[in-house]
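debug: dumping io for the single-chain case to check the tokenizer round-trip. Nothing else runs in this session.
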Amino acid sequence: MITDLVPKSFWAFPSVKPWFDDEDWLTSLPSSSSGLSVSEDEKSVFIEAHMPGLKPEDIEVTFQKGELWIRGDRKEEEKDKGRKYYRYASSSYSYRVLIPGEVDDKAEPEAEYKDGVMSITFPKAAKVLPKKIAVKKAK
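debug: decoded output
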């Protein structure tokens, strides 16, 4: 057990012991990693969301007013009736991100799910350059 590897003086703090009483203490600690990457180049904005264990039909992607939502839930499969379950694994993901820069509203973003990663590419809008107006001599 993990508690045998730690010096006894460590367990004197009352706030520490409850963490290790739970069998799943390592998986229940809060995580600071997001699983969402946003990048861009001259022509596109790229979003990558890590969503392992899902199928494309389990994922919902919506984009409105510059805001992208990616949600996914692994559907619960039928459990074996002959077993007593203490814990049943499931997956649920939800990401929300504001898309940087100006994307082309008329172009359809490309979305692809492969090897547990949802990738979305937004083409950027063509930059509107100032129009030069020729000045003619008055007659």
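debug: round-trip ok. The radius of gyration is 25 Å.
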